[in-house]
Amino acid sequence: MASLQRTHYENLGVARDAPLAHIKQAYYAAVLKYHPDKATAVSNTARAQEQPAEGDEPCGAAELDGDLVASTSKVFELVQKAWEVLRDAGRRAAYDSELSLQELQAPLSYQDELDLGELDEEVDADGTDVYTYPCRCGDRYTVPKSEINDHPTAVVPCRTCSNHVLVRTATTL
User: Checking CA distances to 19, which of 28, 33, 57, 122 falls within 20 to 30 Å?
Assistant: First the structure.
């Protein structure tokens, strides 16, 4: 499953920890909304209500209706697939494990890119030489000099919040 794809939970509009009863309710609501027969019936009703003015050509409503039915069919297939997985406890557990693994393997995002010269040099409480930089939460990003000197770049987390910065040494410019 690609990371840009929506999850089965998102396709049904439910939380990941939703009980089966809520998933079932969301599934039935989605089926009523996206079933291809329902979309065809709605588009036929809309077409029947349209009365072109005298001498006007039809404006391609049939082509648009075909697109509507095709798109609702795709959504309906996604809803069906989500229901098939999430209604079975074993398949749902396996799917949740797969999602968790993907989240762990996702590339780490960072809020800012900094050059080594932008960081402050300090000695921390342990007597270790470190580079620091203020975080927007009020704390500081801190990385030991030995760590940054061994690598051309480092992703440094804030000790307080979930923000990260990418620090580049002069050799990577």
Answer: 33
What is the separation of C-alpha 74 from the centre of its chain, rounded to a whole number of angstroms? 19
Per-residue pLDDT of the chain (173 residues; tens, 9 = 90+): 434 478 999 999 999 999 999 999 999 999 998 888 876 555 555 444 555 444 444 443 333 355 666 788 889 999 999 999 999 999 999 999 998 888 777 666 677 888 888 889 999 888 999 989 898 888 988 888 888 777 778 888 888 887 888 888 765 44
Tell me the two tokens of residue 125: 């409480």
Q: Which residues of 47-62 are buried (b: 16+ CB within 10 A; e: fewer)?
A: eeeeeeeeeeeeeeee
